[in-house]
Amino acid sequence: MNARTLYLLLRPTAHAVKWRPMVAGATLGLAILLVPEALTSRLTDAHLTTLARIAAICVALGAAFLLDDPATRSTLTVPTPRLARNLVRVALAGPAVALWWALTLGLAKTTGHHAAAAHLPVAALTLEAATLLATALALSAIAQRRTVDGNTSVVAAPAVLLLVAVAWFLPHPVELVLRPTDPHWTASHYNWAAALATALVAFLWASHERA
Amino acid sequence: MTAVLAEAPGTPAVDAAARHRAVLALARVETVRMLRHPVTVAATLLLAGFWVSSWFAIGTSRYPVLQDLDRDSAIGMMILLGGAALIVGNLAVLRAHRDGTTGLSQVLILPDRARTVAHLFAPLPLAVLGAVLIVARMAILAICTPAAGHPNPYELATGPATVLLLGALGVLLGRLTRSAVVAPLALLVVLAGLAVLEPLANGGKALWLAPQGGSVLPMPVPVSLMGRPAAAHFAYLLGLAGLLSAAAVLRAGARGVRVAVAGVVALACAVAGGTAQLSAPGHAVVAARTAAMNHPSQYETCRELGHVAYCAFAGFSRWIPAWNTVVQAVVAQVPATARSARLTIRQRIVFVSLGGGKGPEQLLAAWRSDNAAAGTPGAIGIDTQWGDSRSAADLAAQVAYRLVTGRAGEAHVEQGAELAGATACGGAGVLVVWLAGQAGTQARTGLRRLTEDGRDPRGGVSFDQNQLIPSVYVPAPELTVATQALARPRADIAARVQRSWATLTAPGTTAAQAAQILGVPAPAAGTAC
């Protein structure tokens, strides 16, 4: 396995990836954040933060389709390991998602006619979005281990929503979803960082093929 | 599916009864699959777990207001069980596509439209399960807690109705597109609607057209003043669910009188419910709200406990013993000579929209004349929310202020049209906070939270009679002295309070003098009272 092989994999993988769910999620996410902001000036910090979170969940749902591979039955025999194939897919989608997120938050901050838009906690929300994305990928990779037809999204997409629902209701001191004015806001982002690390480790572990 | 094939007779196309049996058999299979699906099981457990944990985590759930909790429960059900019905129903419709058996299903005895009907039946038992859960929650709260009021059955029914609505949406989306990402994204649109439709509608009635229904009042109110068109909203949701179902069946290729009739009935139901809900609240309810806000004494029943009269709105009288515990704890710390005043605790509600832009002065004047008319001058105001530490601290501090100064704390309008409570200066302010700290662990917790996180912009703390109207304000130096006194052994401070009651309550006593009397360090700065 060398860099040249990975480079050769880029173009066919880009063709093989299901981009449509990702595009649908990104478009809807953008609309969910920007349309209410354009329609009213009564949104508070808390409203905008919630909308930005929902936008991040939209694109995480799209990312749950990233590892779908109808050719799974035939890839068992290829010499390129699954981890490398998964990483190529992530390398293709990652920059696009990062660009989308920067664009979404940038537009939200600049087009908002009110003070709340300027105070959007960008760094914290980016950490949350990255965690959601990594969780979606980790769930897809875990689903890959069990699937026979390569349809990982059928498990990963509902699982992303379920995990989000659990995260929404987590009590103190492991709470994740807080308002920006909450005194535990910073502490909760240590929890987010821990969740991100866990999701990344889970993704790497699950992407390894069983010997 | 094997059951369908096994039960199907030889000539299904002409035998309508056999077709019905096959649809029912498929619906049964799909129902069981939906109920057993991991997403449904997890969502149900999460909903039940959330309801149980809120019992322990949220103070006010020990004293629930059932006419508010019914809507709350219905929204929780919409998000979790409705979301499960949407996603699982959609996955079920897309199963043939996912498994690459779409072509095969064309040769089965049931055509697509009949299979769609079976899929539409699948969320029904989940809605029934939701109804059982929501009724069980209300029953447990009504029996096991001193709950106020009673739930609106139609408001409860909107929970299961949203399960049907979102289930039908899942089936329709499955018929419209073969992408599995659309249903979860649709759920996120519903969630985004929950988050921002309220500011978007700006309190307008258009919010009733959303599945979650109109906004809630800023504070719990008696059942007769709710004025929520829950029955019309329920009919509207059922109509919408019927419309989506008809659209799904139409999309699957069904044409015929029955689909048309079902569609028309659903449309009529949705339009009738949709328009009826926009006319609420009626004039009678608005008039009743104004009357109850301005003249609470005429709508309350009073009960005397230990020389204190407690006046509560209909449905709230089960909270009186809990109020009494806090009030008596404060009274017990006061010397017998200072207990002569007859105390009245009166519940009060505020409807912001009924102020008519005249400001709060009129309301405060109305309350004064109401008190005079009822023969209870200096009545202490209390909220329609109870069980949290803040409410206990607010009540205790107001009772303390009444006992210390001989008059009830009352709000007044400061410059800039901001409402402010009566300022408790010097020894009186110190005593108010210290006495409030004697009213049990809840009041003590509320006091600590107020001191730590809930300071007024001026630096002190404000004790309110409800979420909108403040009552007593204690400035920062008085608060500092009282906090230090609360940290000292209780018996020692209590003895000093008993001994120097007259000095401490005298109008001229400053916070520094009070600190000296109580034996705690004096505050850095005095207050200009």
Describe the protein.
Chain B: The chain crosses the membrane at residues 38-58, 74-96, 117-136, 156-174, 181-201, 230-250, 257-276. The complex is a heterodimer of chains A (211) and B (529). Chain A has 211 residues and is mainly α. Chain A has one domain (3-207). Chain A is built from nine helices and no strands. Chain A has helices at 3-16, 20-39, 45-63, 72-75, 82-111, 115-118, 122-146, 153-169, 185-207. By secondary structure, chain B is α/β, with parallel strands linked by helices. Chain B has 22 helices and nine strands. Chain B has helices at 2-7, 16-36, 38-57, 66-93, 95-98, 102-105, 112-121, 123-144, 153-176, 182-201, 230-251, 257-278, 283-294, 320-332, 361-374, 389-405, 426-436, 441-453, 476-487, 490-499, 501-505, 511-518; strands spanning 300-305, 308-313, 343-347, 380-382, 412-413, 419-420, 422-423, 461-464, 470-474. In chain B, helix 14 links the parallel strand 2 and strand 3. In chain B, helix 4 (66-93) runs antiparallel to helix 10, helix 16 packs across helix 18 and helix 17 (426-436) packs across helix 19 (476-487). The longest helix of chain B is centred in the first third of the chain and has 28 residues, at 66-93. The A-B interface holds A 20-21, 24-25, 28, 32, 36, 39-40, 42-44, 47, 50-51, 54, 57-58, 61-62, 64-65, 151, 153-154, 157-158, 160-162, 165-166, 169, 171, 183 and B 38-39, 42-43, 46, 49-50, 53, 57, 79-80, 83, 87-88, 91, 98, 179-182, 184-185, 187-189, 191-192, 195-196, 199-200, 202, 453.
